[in-house]
Amino acid sequence: MKFKNLFLVLGLLNVSLVTAETSSGSDQTNKASITQNEMLINRQASLRLKIDELEIIKNNTQNPFSYKRAINDLKDLYKEIEIIEKMQLLLVKNSNNIQTSES
User: Where are the domains of the chain?
Assistant: First the structure.
């Protein structure tokens, strides 16, 4: 399920990047980049809340199955946050390249 959400975010980002590349004018490109970044920030905030909940469960559970499940879920969430951070860096680089080429 977590990878399903990840693929959804990646798909939306990919569609947004294609839209940004094919649109004309720096205003549209900037709007698309801002929208993509907002989506990533919102997703990252959502993941941080889930991580906080799982950390509480992990630290307070006496059930070894719940503990192991929390650990595995945390690994997936941290990986997704890492991917989001890389995508944000790509957005910044892409917007800088577009601005440089338009100058």
Answer: 35-91
